[in-house]
TrEMBL record:
<dbReference type="Pfam" id="PF03465">
    <property type="entry name" value="eRF1_3"/>
</dbReference>
<dbReference type="InterPro" id="IPR029064">
    <property type="entry name" value="Ribosomal_eL30-like_sf"/>
</dbReference>
<feature type="domain" description="eRF1">
    <location>
        <begin position="31"/>
        <end position="120"/>
    </location>
</feature>
<keyword id="KW-0614">Plasmid</keyword>
<protein>
    <submittedName>
        <fullName>ERF1 domain 3 protein</fullName>
    </submittedName>
</protein>
<dbReference type="InterPro" id="IPR005142">
    <property type="entry name" value="eRF1_3"/>
</dbReference>
Length: 138
């Protein structure tokens, strides 16, 4: 990423530099969100990863931020659609990560995770595997 542009830069060079900078910022933002969730929120009981645990959090209306990967949206469309609807209905933000952050979300959490407004009492720490996932939030 170029830190500066020449004063003779064309409109196209300016647009390309702006796109590159925006893409870099988006990637850093996504990675920071995911890192914070996995490193700080999850151990405090204020984060959930994987489909079953995220669904429990959505049912409890505890979700503040829902994180999804593009791969999860593509391969688990019905589950993703229900999760997004449930998150928006409770006033949560929804972020679709990209780049390395999305790949890390896929590896660490099966493509879906949530930052919680409050810890869910008695909730076991989730298994992040992708087996035995229900197709809906019900």
């Amino acid at each position: 990423m170029s830190a500066s542009l020449d004063h003779d830069a064309t409109d196209r060079q300016i647009v390309d530099a702006a796109r590159e900078a925006a893409s870099g910022l988006r990637a850093m933002h996504g990675r920071a969100l995911l890192d914070r969730l996995l490193e700080r929120m999850l151990p405090q009981g204020r984060g959930e990863v994987g489909v079953p645990a995220t669904q429990r959090a959505l049912h409890a209306e505890a979700v503040d931020l829902l994180l999804l990967s593009p791969q999860f949206l593509e391969t688990d469309a019905p589950v993703a659609e229900n999760a997004v609807h449930a998150a928006l209905a409770q006033g949560a933000d929804v972020e679709v990560l990209s780049g390395e952050a999305a790949a890390h979300l896929d590896r660490a959490a099966g493509g879906i995770a949530a930052r919680l407004r409050f810890a869910i009492d008695g909730s076991p720490r989730p298994d992040t595997g992708r087996d035995d996932r229900p197709d809906t939030l019900s």
